[in-house]
Request: fold
Amino acid sequence: MLVSAKEMLDKAKAGHYAVGQFNINNLEWTKSILLAAEEKKSPVILGVSEGAGKYMTGYKTVVGMVNGMLEELNITVPVALHLDHGGYEACYKCIEAGFSSIMFDGSHYPIEENVAKTKELVAVCKEKGLSLEAEVGSIGGEEDGVIGTGEVADPNECKMIADLGVDMLAAGIGNIHGKYPANWKGLSFETLEAIQKLTGEMPLVLHGGTGINEEMIKKAINLGVAKINVNTECQITFAEATRKYIEEGKDLQGKGFDPRKLLAPGSEAIKQTVIEKMELFGSVGKA
Ligand code: 13P
Reply:
């Protein structure tokens, strides 16, 4: 059964580790991530962007697939199904479809409107038992066609949103989605520290987990990050393994063109990437 992300993140914050959010795009992604979590006895958050939801034909399909897999694969670790960067309407669609967690990304609204909409969603999520993530300060890079500027959040605005009763808070600290440019200045730990001081127990979320080095990840966890989102890295390892299979001509040998064979190396690669991240984030054995 899907669970809200609240308990796993509160535990992670108290225990100084982070739970990974891995985005899903299809059946193979979902299966690889769930198998990795079960094997490593780690809690896990499956992230679904609005674009990925659409790709998989809609949120109800996603809920049906994930719930079915939890049962068929005998998954015993805590799993949350989370809307990633949801707009206002998408949040309601996912609540209705059976997600166990949502992110309302109101970072592009003026702060007053972000506050008003977040407040409303806090009440709805509390009533229905879902966890809610809010965002202050847009995350740079491209996410579903929206280009963020990689701004650094205002710690006072973070405190304002945290006090509304959300369960986790994403704050821009110079992080961006996708690959980091060669001239990236790194995470702003000063900002993270200031946010952490003002928001206390609130689990903080680090988006754009791909390409942040181990040292920075560990420092961020020490400063209160309890959820780290990873997407691009799984996409890259999947593509690399698939390319290798085809370049080696394996799709032309026997029934190597069978999609179950063709997609197997990529699926295994995602699983290994997820396991590496779980080890780095410290969530192994915490389920
Ligand atoms: P990456 O694609 O950079 O790993 O970021 C994922 C993310 O933050 C999803 O919200």
